[in-house]
Design brief:
Layout (H helix, E strand, L loop, with lengths): L3 H11 L5 E7 L3 H12 L4 E4 L15 E2 L3 H5 L3 H17 L4 E10 L7 H15 L8 E3 L1 H7 L10 E10 L1 H14 L3 E3 L4 E7 L2 E9 L2 E12 L15 E14 L8 E5 L6 E7 L2 E5 L3 E2 L12 H8 L13 E14 L16 E6 L2 E6 L5 H14 L32 H10 L5 H8 L2 H5 L7 H8 L7 H20 L5
Parallel strand pairs: 1-2, 1-10, 2-7, 4-12, 10-18
Antiparallel strand pairs: 3-6, 4-6, 5-6, 8-9, 9-10, 11-14, 11-15, 11-16, 12-13, 13-14, 17-18
Length: 498
């Protein structure tokens, strides 16, 4: 089976003026990866292009939760919640090593958020429409039971908690596994290759222009799919009356020994009664997310502001944590929310904005943006149905579905306090299409997020382990380390007011 490294190398040799594919997909986040896999399985000659790294955008900065959207059910979005909850169960069954059940304790404090009993009814509806296993049915925890399950915390006075289940994942690894399956089905893949324009003949899109090592290159396609998420309107306009509203969500990462949690705590924020989560992930504890309009340049990496940091830290006293522990790292992502354009500038509160996706098309082109991580498979099917309806694609030649599972573990030893096995680091260095060091440390593995500045202690070991897989000379290694730390310090460690 071709690795991602092999797929990118082989695809680059095919990129030349006049090269043709049945389907060219722009954007290698979870949406584009899902479309590429579904298209390749149908037998279409498929090319996926990405201007940055694989899973380098929104799909790398989510809350890592594969859920049905309990909040959306409370807002009356029953169809979206039902679709997402059932999709969660299908994904969990397909990739149990990436998507795992996680218990949630929805904590209730007097005067904040809905009462315990109305939420218990909502949670039972949520459970029943999902088709989840019987062992995941919701339960009630008294204040005494909650305190017993969280012995490390001196909880503020509370009414107890509703205990329910959702799922957690590694969002970047979900994208990578989907891409590996797409490549196994025959899809071509090339990252760090920017699409600079759509090619047209009359009113029909006939391909794309890419920047190939500084030189414009024309690629032809029967159909083009724009799956660039929050950046979709950079290539084409949205339907009249609609706009993409970038919402920023930021998260703080702590050492799990400072905030030891057996479950995700779902808490209503004391300031605005928004739901915020504190949950275990990849050997750390994560606090998030915020939800606010991103007014900065969306082409630059999003940053966690000092205001967002302070907002999230306000939750810790509810857990009896009066002195915030050290922050290991932070991440911020942009959600592509489709919103009606209003002349008066007034919009719904960010947390109330619909997470429904939007598919729109023109001759030779299908665009998609918005939606949820959980429903990416259903979104891919909808996009391909629209592409096929235009009649430009050849007759599909379906192939059997190929489900890839966890690789055999050759060495269970991990690097430092992380949960990243050394053999995984070497595997991704060799097979993960690594273009720069941050690809390996932030997206193929999560060493940068979970170790923070503690990663400095392992620089020599990482270089030694990966030297044969990434045959960079000493000068290149030092440049890569310098570039990595500049990026980490600027965007992933110190919250600022930007």
């Amino acid at each position: 089976m071709r690795s991602l490294t092999d797929a990118v190398c082989q695809t680059r040799t095919q990129l030349s003026d006049g090269a043709r594919w049945d389907l060219i997909i722009i954007g290698a986040g979870i949406t584009g990866a899902g479309i590429a896999r579904a298209a390749a399985q149908r037998g279409y000659r498929t090319l996926l292009l990405e201007r940055g790294d694989l899973a380098g955008g929104t799909s790398n900065f989510s809350s890592k939760m594969v859920h049905g959207g309990l909040r959306y059910l409370g807002q009356g979005h029953f169809r979206l919640t039902r679709q997402a909850a059932r999709a969660r169960e299908r994904l969990r069954q397909r990739w149990p090593d990436i998507i795992t059940p996680l218990p949630y304790y929805l904590m209730h404090h007097k005067g904040r958020g809905p009462g315990p009993w109305p939420m218990r009814l909502v949670l039972w509806i949520y459970y029943l429409i999902s088709g989840a296993a019987r062992c995941h049915r919701p339960r009630w925890l008294t204040p005494e039971q909650l305190a017993t399950r969280l012995p490390a915390f001196n909880l503020a006075p509370n009414l107890g908690a509703n205990h329910y289940f959702d799922a957690v994942c590694d969002d970047s690894h979900l994208v990578l596994r989907t891409l590996e399956e797409a490549v196994a089905q025959g899809a071509d893949l090339c990252h760090y290759t920017e699409v600079t324009a759509l090619r047209r003949k009359g009113d029909r899109v006939t391909g794309v222009t890419i920047d190939l090592n500084g030189t414009p290159c024309q690629l032809a396609a029967s159909m083009v799919v724009n799956a660039t998420g929050v950046w979709a309107d950079d290539l084409t306009e949205l339907p009249e009356g609609l706009t993409i509203r970038p919402l920023r969500g930021s998260h703080l990462v702590f050492d799990q020994r400072d905030l030891p949690l057996p479950a995700s705590l779902t808490v209503f924020h004391p300031r605005d009664k928004r739901v915020v989560f504190c949950y275990p992930w990849a050997g750390t504890t994560v606090l998030g997310t915020t939800d606010l309009d991103h007014l900065a340049d969306k082409s630059a990496p999003a940053r966690c502001s000092a205001e967002e940091r302070d907002y999230l830290l306000e939750l810790l006293p509810l857990l009896g944590v009066t002195q915030p522990p050290p922050i290991i790292s932070s991440w911020s992502g942009l959600r592509p929310i489709v919103s009606p354009a209003r002349s008066d500038g007034k919009q719904a509160a960010p947390s109330s904005a619909s997470r429904e996706h939007l598919v729109w098309e023109s001759p030779g082109l299908v665009n998609v943006t918005g939606g949820k991580l959980t429903t990416f498979v259903e979104m891919a099917e909808e996009v391909l149905a629209c592409a096929e309806e235009q009649g430009h694609l050849p007759e599909p030649q379906p192939q059997p579905d190929r489900i890839l599972t966890r690789r055999t573990c050759l060495d269970g030893s991990t690097l430092g306090d992380s949960l990243v096995p050394r053999h995984e680091l070497v595997h991704w260095a060799r097979h993960g299409a690594i273009h720069q060091l941050s690809d390996l440390l932030l997206r193929r593995t999560r060493l940068g997020w979970v170790l923070g500045t503690g990663l400095r202690s392992y620089q020599a070991e990482i270089q030694r382990l990966c030297q044969t897989a990434l045959p960079w000379d000493e000068s290149r290694w030092q440049r890569e380390w310098q570039a990595y730390w500049q990026q980490f310090i600027q965007y992933h460690q110190e919250p600022n007011d930007g």
